[in-house]
Amino acid sequence: MFDHLSDRAILSFADREIITVSVLAALHHPFISKHIIGSLNVGITSVQLKEVFSIIEKVIGQKRLKAPEESLPTANWT
To answer: Which of 21, 24, 59, 64 could form a disulfide with 29 if both were Cys (CB 3.0 to 4.6 A apart)?
Structure first.
């Protein structure tokens, strides 16, 4: 799936990272911390990431979602 995202020039790097983080968060995938860092590196703010996680939480439920703070505890989430 992720190969298709990176092959398309239609989406920005930030868009691709938001999609990737969303999927990985929903799946509790261990690579999420790397993609959270990648998201921050392409200009996504911690506020935007929290918003993404908030939307995912509404869809799949809080019990199934791993919060960004749990995925990457060393990041500054304020």
So the answer is: 24
Considering the domain boundaries, does residue 27 fall inside one?
yes
How confident is the model over 19-38, as pLDDT tens digits?
889 888 888 788 888 989 99
Tens of pLDDT along 51-78? 988 888 887 776 655 555 555 545 555 5
Domain count across the chain: 1
**In the chain, what is the greatest distance between 2 CA atoms, to the nearest angstrom?**
35
- Domain membership of residue 74 (yes or no) is no
Q: Model pTM? A: 0.68
Q: Which domain holds residue 43?
A: 2-69
First-last CA distance in the chain? 32
